[in-house]
């Protein structure tokens, strides 16, 4: 009798794992069945969604001619931006960016909203650039006019006949955009230009650039003029009396306070500032 009970115990003990295995197998099969019928969803990751929605072409302008383009607040949202090989264009970026690259442009007026990183300008001629940024640098440029709010010392290299002025600008979203880009309107080193390739004059002063100390220099660019923007409302003011960026002056190779920036057509440094902007087609983003 004892031997019979021992055999029964062994049989019952060996049967338990079989029941557990069959249960696990049925659960796996059930999960596969639910997945195949669409009753379960795959986990979604933020980076995969972002890759599906970003179009790099939305953050670049290449090879444009005689165009006026306005990017409204909220249209860039901290992405990198490229402007390349544009001619006689007016380009306005009223949003914050991560970094800006401007290459091989001629005769353009470019406004760049708060830039978290660097603004790099290379091989550009007769352009007017208005920008708020962490770092500003040029290379191989000629006769550019820069209205600047920069957290660090601007740097020029192989650049001649450059003129710098204190940017004066205000629009509704600007203060919030500067906070997103980590910039302060009260930290502006626009006068502290460092020239890597100086053409030194008396006292070691570089002849490759000069500073414009006219408080109305930005306003005189005329970006709000109808011949520049047509019927487009920029919703921005370049009036120094309401500018978010305080007007400042500093030590450097300053020009006469009454001098205005060069006219990009005549390239006469004492000419009246009235840029011959071109407007054939307007695009609002």
From TrEMBL:
<dbReference type="InterPro" id="IPR006599">
    <property type="entry name" value="CARP_motif"/>
</dbReference>
<dbReference type="GO" id="GO:0006892">
    <property type="term" value="P:post-Golgi vesicle-mediated transport"/>
</dbReference>
<feature type="domain" description="C-CAP/cofactor C-like">
    <location>
        <begin position="45"/>
        <end position="198"/>
    </location>
</feature>
<protein>
    <recommendedName>
        <fullName>C-CAP/cofactor C-like domain-containing protein</fullName>
    </recommendedName>
</protein>
<comment type="similarity">
    <text>Belongs to the TBCC family.</text>
</comment>
<dbReference type="GO" id="GO:1990075">
    <property type="term" value="C:periciliary membrane compartment"/>
</dbReference>
<dbReference type="InterPro" id="IPR039093">
    <property type="entry name" value="XRP2"/>
</dbReference>
<keyword id="KW-0547">Nucleotide-binding</keyword>
<dbReference type="InterPro" id="IPR012945">
    <property type="entry name" value="Tubulin-bd_cofactor_C_dom"/>
</dbReference>
<dbReference type="Pfam" id="PF07986">
    <property type="entry name" value="TBCC"/>
</dbReference>
<dbReference type="GO" id="GO:0005096">
    <property type="term" value="F:GTPase activator activity"/>
</dbReference>
<dbReference type="GO" id="GO:0000166">
    <property type="term" value="F:nucleotide binding"/>
</dbReference>
<dbReference type="GO" id="GO:0005929">
    <property type="term" value="C:cilium"/>
</dbReference>
<dbReference type="InterPro" id="IPR016098">
    <property type="entry name" value="CAP/MinC_C"/>
</dbReference>
<dbReference type="InterPro" id="IPR017901">
    <property type="entry name" value="C-CAP_CF_C-like"/>
</dbReference>
